[in-house]
Design goal:
alpha/beta; Rossmann fold; Substrate Binding Domain Of Dnak, Chain:A, Domain 2; 2 domains; six-stranded mixed β-sheet; three-stranded antiparallel β-sheet; 10 helices; 40% helix
């Protein structure tokens, strides 16, 4: 019997109406040691940590770091060569990136800028990679680009006018660390880039669909960056995809009323099929959620008071609050505010999700303060 984490990657193709287990294949590249521009701190760590996480989730991962153009081309060719109609593909790049005439390029460590033409010949086209993945017939293609958003031809990771938007082909999900035309942070005070750090957290949460994973990453990154970095995505995925199954959500659910349903199979391993289960209805009523929100807000108030006292004491010694704790404080305040707003608007599901995020940040702060 395989663990539920390993068998939990189930994808539903809405036009067919059957749940199908897919072969999980990933390529993760992290470029830090650039030869002609200042090095980056996080990408090699991003690649190592994400590789470990994806392997936990049942992906066959190729892990590449500090790759020159030849190494990137070899890795991409081998990766695309493994994909077929039964694949779920995941590509992640962390490092420098830039755009030329609305086309995005991922930058190898040996890249040396001479002019715009050099980018086309000496860097890796993200659009070409996307097209090649789609052409394999792979059921699901996920591209995650945590790259420098530099629209000019200088290569500083946190400056420039941003990468260009990309339209996802059918069955593709493209995620950027920030919105088109904006910049992504290298996060010098943390082990991982801000976006990839929160992606690692979200991938560890059972029961989140592909969209929900990146919605959570978007909320956390936006809050931690003081609303400066807003991750962006483009999706043409049909159906639902879960990295880790949650309670009774080991299969996807069918939003098509008349789609055919196969007979139930208690052990959906490999190509065996199982009956899709509906999304559970929210368990908390508005009144219960309002009571929970009040309790969490009270805890947050106590934590905020303790943090303010600590920051006052540290300022007297010429110190400041740790970067990760400052980020947790911002995340707590933002998601708590969002939960209150969504609850007022009657969005119980959205309010619950934001309240969960607020409590997670709150628990981190309480542990830090010894409360």
């Amino acid at each position: 019997m395989y663990s539920r984490i390993v068998v939990g990657l189930i994808f539903f193709v809405g036009s067919v109406g059957w749940a199908q287990a897919l072969d999980r294949v990933a390529l993760v590249i992290g470029n830090s040691s650039y030869r002609h521009v200042p090095p980056l701190k996080n990408p090699v760590n991003d690649a190592a940590d994400l590789t470990a996480k994806l392997r936990e989730l049942g992906f066959k991962v190729t892990h590449v770091v500090d790759a020159d153009q030849a190494a990137m081309d070899r890795a991409v060719n081998a990766f695309v060569g493994k994909l077929n109609k039964d694949s779920a593909a995941f590509f992640h790049f962390s490092g420098h990136g830039l755009q030329v005439q609305q086309e995005n390029f991922l930058v190898p460590v040996d890249f040396k800028l001479t002019d715009a033409a050099s980018v086309r010949y000496d860097a890796v086209s993200a659009s070409k990679l996307h097209d090649r993945m789609a052409a394999t017939g792979s059921q699901l293609n996920i591209l995650v680009l945590d790259a420098c958003r530099n629209g000019g031809l200088g290569l500083t990771r946190s400056s420039g006018s941003g990468l260009a938007s990309m339209n996802a082909a059918r069955g593709s999900f493209i995620a950027f660390a920030t919105a088109p035309g904006r910049t992504a942070a290298d996060n010098p005070n943390g082990r991982n880039g801000l976006f990839t750090g929160y992606l690692l957290e979200a991938l560890s949460t059972p029961g989140l669909s592909l969209d929900e994973v990146f919605n959570e990453v978007r909320a956390d990154t936006y809050a931690a960056s003081e609303e400066e970095q807003l991750p962006w995505s483009s999706s043409s995925v049909i159906g639902q995809f879960f990295f880790i199954p949650g309670d009774r959500r080991d299969l996807v659910y069918d939003s098509m009323e008349n789609a055919p349903k196969p007979a139930a199979d208690p052990d959906p391993i490999g190509s065996r099929q199982a009956q899709p289960k509906p999304r559970p209805a929210p368990t908390a009523s508005t009144a219960e959620l309002d009571e929970r929100l009040t309790l969490v807000a009270a805890r947050a108030g106590a934590v905020k008071q303790s943090l303010d006292e600590l920051k006052t004491s540290q300022r007297q010694d010429g110190l400041g609050l740790r970067g990760d704790m400052s980020a947790a404080e911002r995340r707590m305040s933002y998601t708590l505010g969002q939960a209150e707003k969504l609850l007022t608007d009657g969005d119980v599901v959205g309010a619950t999700r934001n309240l969960d995020l607020a409590e997670r940040a709150l628990e981190q702060l309480e542990k830090f303060l010894g409360m």
